[in-house]
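New to this. Please check this protein:
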Amino acid sequence: MQKIVKSNITNINSKQGRNLLRGIVGENKTTRIKRTLEKIQQCCTEQDYKRSIDVIRDSEIFKNNPVSRDFTKICPVDIGISIEFTPYEIIKKINNNKERLLLLIRIFHSAIDAIGRKDLHNALYYCDMAIESYGVSCFLLRIISFIRNHANENSAILKEIDRLNTKINSKNNKYLLLVIKELCSYKTDYFNICEKINNSESVYLNAIARNFIDPIPRSKSSFKTTFNAYYLFSLLDAYLFYSSIKRLEISFLIDGEGLDGSLVDCYEKLSKYTINLGSVDISS
């Protein structure tokens, strides 16, 4: 069994930073969390600011916060967190949580397999299982949107999709949800969706949306921004993004610590799965 060391308030060197963070234990109001993080950023070192975010994402005492978690049951609310973790820091976090990530990938593989067998009911069952396993992510949103666009007005499936979207508070991130829905629809005008993405005011949400339509980073800077954006949404998304990019062997990505071998193998298995899009629609 993998031993995971959880982030703790005591890891923060600054006494003021620790006290500020203690003031929002159990807090679920995004405005107060945002103000507290801004204060910590102003009065503490960058390292203590990063540690504060890690505590919010990782510690059990902040498990119900709606802003950011490594593993979550709800869509995070974007509060404009301004931070840049290094690729090494994110990869280390991924490797330290490999068992939870491997479990989630197995669940998602079952969901994709069910889609391939036209069993959308069972696919949604596995989506629900992923939610209960704290696997809410951009990846989950894309799978659910894919199923909706191939449900062919099946009322039972559409009702279950609505239930899942409510369960995960998908409207917490309306912009990203809209982008995913439009990209999953065959009716979407490519140039129209590109314009919407370019007009986004959020740096990190914009980075994720841009990655949907242009998956290869053009510079080390854009890679870091997109990696951080996915990381702030969920650790699973960060793992999937890095795995997809790492296979390209782009020169500026080949540095620091690499992914655990079991995570590499798991992604390879997932990425080889194909679905015949024309055979998925069902009507009953």
Q: What stands out?
A: The mean pLDDT is 87. The CA atoms of residues 73 and 134 lie 5 Å apart. Residues 1-65 form one domain. The radius of gyration is 19 Å.
